[in-house]
Amino acid sequence: MSVAVILVAAGQGERLGAGKPKALVHVAGVTLLEHAIARAVATKNLSQLVITATPGFLEEFVELAKPHVPSGIQLSAVQGGETRQLSIALALGEVSNSAEVILVHDAARAFTPTEVFDRVVAEVLASGFGVIPVIPVHDTVKRSEGSEVLETIDRSELRVAQTPQGFPAKLFREAYAAITKDHTDDASLIQANGHRVLSVPGDRMAMKVTTKDDLILASHLIGGQQRTGIGTDTHRFSEDSAKPLFLGTIEWPGERGLDGHSDGDALSHAIVDALLSAAGLGDIGSNFGVDRPEFQGANGQVFLTETLAKLAEAGFAIINVSAQIIGNRPKVAPMREQVEQVLSSILKAPVTISATTTDGLGFLGNTEGVAVVASALIQRKDE
Ligand code: CTP
Ligand code: MG
Prior knowledge:
By secondary structure, the protein is an alpha/beta fold. It folds into two domains: about 5-140 and about 150-220, Spore Coat Polysaccharide Biosynthesis Protein SpsA, Chain A, CATH 3.90.550.10; about 225-380, CATH 3.30.1330.50. Helix content is about 30%, strand content about 30%. It contains twelve helices and 18 strands. It has helices spanning about 30-40, 60-65, 85-90, 115-125, 170-175, 185-190, 210-220, 265-280, 285, 300-315, 335-345, 360-365; strands at about 5-10, 25, 30, 45-55, 75-80, 100-105, 130-135, 140-145, 150-155, 160, 165-170, 195-200, 225-235, 245, 250-255, 315-325, 350-355, 370-380. Helix 8 runs parallel beside helix 10. The longest helix is centred in the last third of the chain and has 15 residues, at about 335-345. The protein binds cytidine-5'-triphosphate and magnesium ion. The site of cytidine-5'-triphosphate (CTP) has 23 residues, from strand 1 and helix 3. Cytidine-5'-triphosphate binds near residues 13, 14, 22 and 208.
């Protein structure tokens, strides 16, 4: 028994509006095409993968596909047609006669788990009919005309159709040979040709990426490409009791200041280190070294703003930052909310601050200085 998958990826992705074919758009640093292929090629008994490529991108699609396709699986590719159905008709010409089950899968449903492919194949073999994965409709569904809501539809009979849709190869070829009009999916084509179609449970992960929102949702669903970083900084309290304390870019009234090459803002500096290390961009010393006079006495905001720009340039967005101030002084509670607000607005992401003492131990316990530990979580931005 052998299975062929036709992976339709020849669309333009107009509704996504990425300025390139949807299949080439990245989620978590990997193209949708590759996400789809990686899951499809693990299908049991798969012998062939035929990809339909956006006109002008055939070679690029094949080069992206190759590393993901194991040697026992035949990889073919064709340039797609005007419509999804025409693309599939062209791909069908490439499907080997030895394939007994043909699956058609949207590359736009790039995160469909392999189990769904296997479930569809098993039911095609067991029934001899066409089989599609479906999920129930949980929302209340209305029929309306313009802004006028006319009635509530009984959703108990409604199902959302997904892909891969699977068919006995013979039925599928006959249906494509007899096409008279355009159908939005292959199940309706098979039914128009007089054959039954069954369903198996689909999967939420088989969602179709159509608009920008779907891309964000998909990125969250698969966990994105997140990285954490850690940073610490320690500064000594100044001998000068009149020196103001700057922590988290703002002044803390009534607290003694800290010494340092800059303004001694251990909180901002620890956060900068956490962010830079999460992005693999070195640390505060390698980016804003003591040899750079422009940072002498600089406020923490200068470092934070520049760090945010460096992260953005490297393709990262901040998810959140958490920092802990360690020492007897300053008293953090009265300033916590204000500092969190200021730092969150500078970094455009939630920054939370906690505080602790060391039970009187060491240089923090005898109020010689302040230490801060910060951790940052960042995520690669998708295009
Ligand atoms: N598809 C195809 N050939 C076409 C049109 C679509 O192979 N002529 C594929 C798409 O690449 C996609 C799937 O069919 O994987 C479902 O189509 P859709 O989600 O509509 O993708 P696009 O057509 O690329 O998007 P849009 O309609 O927004 O342009
Ligand atoms: Mg389309």
